[in-house]
Amino acid sequence: MVIPCYNEQEVLPETSKRLFNKLKTLMERGEIDRSSRIVFVDDGSKDETWNIIEKLHQENEIFQGIKLSRNRGHQNALLSGLMTVKDICDVSISMDADLQDDIDAIDEMIVKYKEGSDIVYGVRSRRDTDTFFKKHTAENYYKLMGKMGADIVYNHADFRLMDKCALMALADFGEVNLFLRGIVPMLGFETSIVYYERSERFAGESKYPLFKMLQFAFEGITSLSTKPIRFVTELGAFIFGVSIAVFIYSLVRYFTGHTIPGWTTTVLSVWAIGGLIMVSLGIIGEYVGKIYLETKNRPRYIISKYLCDESDKEEIALTDVKLLK
After folding, report:
1. How confident is the model at residue 221 (pLDDT cuts 50, 70, 90)?
2. Model pTM greater than 0.85?
3. 2-209+299-320 CATH
4. Are 304 and 66 a contacting pair, CB within 8 Å?
5. Do residues 157 and 123 make contact, with C-beta atoms less than 8 angstroms apart?
């Protein structure tokens, strides 16, 4: 289990308790190996999250911890956990720490894996717990992503099972601008879906307010699709066509002696074209900025501490870990 955490001190004790009980039950039934582990990834939390992870590890070896050197964002935190355990696990299951994902869905995920699936997506069956605004914006976002050409799973976040083959394939993707919900479907392999009902957050505050959600959505679109920049070209061609029509119309009016000073039309035209140019430059600039970040090839995360068994440390490929203590 790989669980990214950011300022989750309120929910972490309950999360660890429920996950432990779930894995213990699966072990007793012989569904998973008794060497299975729960790995919490601290994404530069400013509260007591890491101290709680350390205490859990001291009390029970089933709990392990990865501490990033600074906050790198949910996607990088999740990736750091997956890439760290990819060499020592047969299967990984990722989920958020807020207990909104249904832990009982893990049972069916394991069944799907044993039936031959390399990747199993946890998909929300409905959005009754969401507000009207969040429900409709989320649904429209998934539809928009589909129209933009991005291959993402509808109503799926980051609750998924991936086997070793899928994790190794994921390691070959080196982009800095991460959007795992769009990258994982690119891997191919045999996939299946498990539906579940998402609960309310157990405790604490959401780490994705409206502005951050919109930012994350835009990041996903620009990371997976070039259609926005193509739209700029199409828009420019359309405006060019309109300008030719206006030019011809102006000439006709001039030669027929019906020219009338049009201050309002001129002002509106200047503002409209100016606004479109600024928006177009912004979209182009977004892509140029991503190219800039990709060419720098900076590490997506740096691990400052890793709490695990000594045997696991020996097996982990340190090429993916910049700093290990």
Report:
1. low
2. no
3. 3.90.550.10
4. no
5. no
If you compute the radius of gyration of the chain from its CA atoms, what whole number of angstroms results?
25
The three-state DSSP-derived secondary structure of the chain is CEEEECCCCCCHHHHHHHHHHHHHHHHHCCCCCCCCCEEEEECCCCCCHHHHHHHHHHHCCCEEEEEECCCCCHHHHHHHHHHHHCCCCCEEEECCCCCCCCCCHHHHHHHHHHCCCCEEEEEECCCCCCCHHHHHHHHHHHHHHHHCCCCCCCCEEEEEEEEHHHHHHHCCCCCCCCCHHHHHHHHCCCEEEEEECCCCCCCCCCCCCHHHHHHHHHHHHHHHCCHHHHHHHHHHHHHHHHHHHHHHHHHHHHHCCCCCCCHHHHHHHHHHHHHHHHHHHHHHHHHHHHHHHHHHCCCCCCEEEEECCHHHHHHCCHHHCCCCC
pLDDT in tens, 237-253: 777 677 667 667 666 76
92 class by beta-carbon count within 10 Å (0-12 exposed, 13-18 middle, 19+ buried): buried
